[in-house]
Amino acid sequence: MTTTRTIHFTLNGEPVSAQIGTHQNLVEVLQARGLTGARESCAQGLCGCCTVLVNGMAVSACLYLAAFADGAEVRTIEQSNNGELDAVQEAFIECGAFQCGYCTPGFILMTRQLLDAHSDPSEDDIRHYLSGNLCRCAAYPEIIKAVKLAAQKRQDKS
Ligand code: FES
Ligand code: FES
Fewest Cβ atoms nearer than 10 Å: which of 48, 63, 72, 104? Predict the structure, then answer.
């Protein structure tokens, strides 16, 4: 038997409601709303492709029950920056830090978190912070370059 309930949360700055199955994970609920940036890949909390921010903390939405998002603030890669790319997105494009792009939303959200915590991260900081995000295309050298460039861009803008 499937049990359903209604949850209310803030999604990319907008208040929303959703009828969910109590067994459903957050990535399923987001995908059903047309937000496809967070993707279920490993479904085991290992790859970071489903990363979203809940109350400012990165979570693996494949393992996060949607019911837990009731009352929370959820942010996804689709959150608009007034129609502009931010420093992290610009840097990933300029460095060619992706091939298929499947992993990219998770890397970008985690890079934003990293740079919020460490404005001038060392390479060890970058590797440590992004260790939960896997790129099957192995674009890691370009990703590290992009994170360093994004840090520089943020500092130049501040
Ligand atoms: S799909 Fe969630 S961590 Fe891999
Ligand atoms: S760019 Fe293809 S998985 Fe990372």
Answer: 63
